[in-house]
Amino acid sequence: MENKKRVVVGLSGGVDSSVAAYLLKEQGYEVIGMFMKNWHDETVTISNECPWMEDSTDAMLVAEKLDIPFQAIDLSEEYRERIVDYMFSEYENGRTPNPDILCNREIKFDIFLKAAQKLKADFVATGHYCQKGEVKANGKTVYQLLAGADPNKDQSYFLCQLDQDQLSKALFPIGHLQKSEVRKIAKEQDLITADKKDSQGLCFIGKVRLPEFLQQQLKPKKGDIYVIPENHPVYSRSAQIPAGIDPDDYDQETLDMICLPLKYEFNQGNKIGEHNGAHYFTVGQRKGLQVGGTGKPLFVIATDTRENIIYTGLGEEHPGLNRYGLFVPKKDIHWIRQDLKLQEGHNARYQARIRYRQPLTWATLIMRENGLYVLFDEPQRGIASGQFVAWYDGKETIGSGVIS
Ligand SMILES: Nc1ncnc2c1ncn2[C@@H]1O[C@H](COP(=O)(O)OP(=O)(O)OP(=O)(O)O)[C@@H](O)[C@H]1O
C-alpha cells in the first residue's frame, strides 16, 4: 500500500480548523492535530479574556472525536519575541503593525511548521479561508496563493507574506467552502466546536483589547492634538494624481509627493485638544480622541511619536486622510510570485488592498531604484505606515509589502 502523506493541522479549538482536520482525514491523509499556546499567562490575565485553556481543551476533544493524535506546544516565548515585541516597538515608533500577517509568516508557517517537520510531516494545514494553486513558470512549479471561495471570509490577505517554500508545504482544506458549509459539516460530524463563535483575527485584538495591551508597555504621555485645515498648501500637489501622465514619465519628486507620508509641523494647524500618548493612535482612527463639539467627525491623519503630537483632520473627505499613493521601501517588498517580480524602471497594473476585507482597488505599481510606488485609481482612507499592502491578479495574491 502506498505510504500515506502525513499532515500536522493547526487545531485552534475553533470550528474552521476542526473541519479542516476532519476533511484531511476523509481525504486519506495521516493527520496529527497540534495546538500552540502563544500567550504568556501574565500577558493574558490582564483582561482575563484569552481563553487558551478552553481552546486547547476544545482542540483536544476534537482530535479525540476524530481519532487523531494530538499535541500541544508552547510557543509563547517565540511569539513574544517575534510578534509581541514587534507590536510594541512598531506602535512606539508611530507605525501600525499587523500581527496576524506576522504570525502566519513567523509562527504558523515557520516555527510551527518546523515543529511539524520534526514529526516527519509532509504538510502543515490550517483552517484559513484561502486556496493554493499551481502553475508552471520557466519549467518550474510555482505555487499560487488564491482567495477563499467565500467572499466574506477570504483570508488570503493574512498570508500575503508567505514565500514559495512555505506555500509548498501548506494545505488549506476548507478554502473551497463557504463558512455556512463548514458549520454544517461540523454539525453533521457532531464536533463540539460547531457553534463556537468566530475569533476576530488571531488571539490578539479580538481577545486582548488593543488599548489595554499597549498600555502594558507604552506609558501614557500627555501631548497635543492639532487640526490641519483642508486647504493647507501641503495638499496642493500631494492630494491627487496628475491626469494624463504615463507611469514611465513620473518624475521622482511627484511620486514622492503623492506616495510618501506627509510631514506636518505643529505650527501648520490649530491645537484642538490633548491626548494621552501619540503611540496609542493610528492613522484613520476616529475613536478615542475625546475631542467634542467639532461638528464633523475628527480623524487622525498623522502621528509624530517623537514630538508626541497627533495631527487630525475634520470630516471623511479630508485630503490628509484620503491619499492616492503609498511607498514600499526596497527591502520590504515581497513577491509570492517571484516569476512576476517587477524590475526597476518597470510598472504594472494590479488590484490592491491595504487591509483585511477591504474591496480591491486598481492601482499602478511603479518600481524605482529605492522601492515600489503604488498609485491607486481611487483615494485610500487611512494609509498608515507599518501596514501591509498586498497586490492581486484577480483571485491570486502576487506580492505584498510594508508601507513606509
Ligand atoms: N492556537 C492555535 N493552535 C494551532 N493552530 C492555530 C491556533 N490559532 C490559529 N491556528 C490555525 O490558524 C488558522 C487561522 O487562525 P484564525 O485565528 O484566523 O482562526 P479562525 O479563522 O477563526 O479559525 P478557527 O475557527 O479554526 O479558529 C486556524 O484555522 C488554525 O488552523
TrEMBL record:
For this protein, the record's InterPro entries field holds: MnmA-like, MnmA-like_C, MnmA-like_central, MnmA-like_central_sf, Rossmann-like_a/b/a_fold
Site (Interaction with tRNA): give the residues.
H128, Q387
First-tier enzyme category under EC: transferase
Residues of the active site: C103 (nucleophile), C203 (cysteine persulfide intermediate)
Q: Which Gene3D superfamilies match?
A: Adenine nucleotide alpha hydrolases-like domains (2.30.30.280), HUPs (3.40.50.620), Translation factors (2.40.30.10)
Enzyme Commission designation: 2.8.1.13
Quote the NCBIfam families the UniProt record gives: PRK00143.1, trmU
To which protein family does this belong?
A: Belongs to the MnmA/TRMU family.
Full protein name = tRNA-specific 2-thiouridylase MnmA
The record lists the organism as: Fontibacter flavus
Corresponding gene? mnmA
